[in-house]
Amino acid sequence: MMTSMSPDWQDFTPAAWLRSPHFMTVFPGYWPRRALLAGVPTESRLFTTEPHTQLLGFCHWQPNRTACQTVVLVHGLEGCSESHYMRGIAAKAYRTGFNVIRMNQRTCGGTEHLTPTLYNSGLSQDYRAVVHELARVDGLDRISLVGYSMGGNLVLKAAGEAGSSEAALAGAIAVCPNIDPPLCVEALEQPRNWIYHRHFLVSLKARLRRKADLIPGKWDLKELDGIAWISEFDDRYTAPDGGYAMCLIPSPSLHSSSRHKMMPSFPTPCLLGR
């Protein structure tokens, strides 16, 4: 069941000095927000999602956690649990009465050593495993997955796959999900978006080098310096690592990672925001 925002809601009108969409995107990254979770209890936790693979999460529990709803937050491409938007929504959700868990995707947030693989937006099984553990081990029965961008794609995929088999999964919320990966890659590689493309590509290359230091010989880095496009990086490294023929914006197999192909049959309540 897919839900959209009510048409009665007012459109967002930015302040005059924030009218540029590029400035609005870049500026918040430099605005200090470390104090947002001050005083909020925090507990680190490792979730084993596959043999030899763990995801690091930071849990903010209410005093009576089983009596409260829980949100599991999943970041976007090259983000982490410490990303500004992750901390911001965690603070708001916790103070509203939710349990909150800020997840790191595989290899993100300094966790390259916790898995032998790279990450991509086909790994929805990781978040189904997290929900399953929270339900079985912690006794939580109202869990919602919340994802941003690439994370939004992942949580929609996880919700669609889980269907009605996971009773504790109450819903999924996707903020600006990259539902159609080919179009996202095409847009990201446009000249007008060069600053974002360069940021992601430089970060992905640096992450791969760190992984290669941990697992010598697994990836051939001879071609890495010459790669100029994210689509090249994914086809050369992310796709083979995940066992796929091709890969876009770490989204392996377009048939399995594009959530618009599954939307009509979603049994789990889902909300999409943009």
What this model shows, in words?
It is a single chain. The chain has 274 residues and is of the alpha/beta class. It has one domain (36-273): Alpha/Beta hydrolase fold, catalytic domain (Rossmann fold, 3-Layer(aba) Sandwich), CATH 3.40.50. It is 34% helix and 18% strand. The strands form 2 sheets. Strands 1-10-7-6-4-5-3-2 form an 8-stranded mixed beta sheet, sandwiched between helices. Strands 8-9 form a two-stranded antiparallel ribbon. The chain is globular, with a radius of gyration of 18 Å.
* CATH classification class: Alpha Beta
Unreliable stretches (pLDDT < 50, length at least 5) are 252-258
Radius of gyration (Å): 18 Å
Mean pLDDT: 87
- Which CATH architecture? 3-Layer(aba) Sandwich
The number of domains = 1
CATH superfamily grouping:
Alpha/Beta hydrolase fold, catalytic domain
List the helices and strands and how they pair.
Blueprint: E1 2-3, H1 21-26, E2 43-50, E3 53-60, E4 70-74, H2 84-96, E5 99-103, H3 125-138, E6 143-148, H4 150-162, E7 169-175, H5 181-188, H6 194-214, H7 230-242, E8 247-248, E9 251-252, H8 254-257, E10 270-273
Parallel strand pairs: 1-10, 4-5, 4-6, 6-7, 7-10
Antiparallel strand pairs: 2-3, 3-5, 8-9
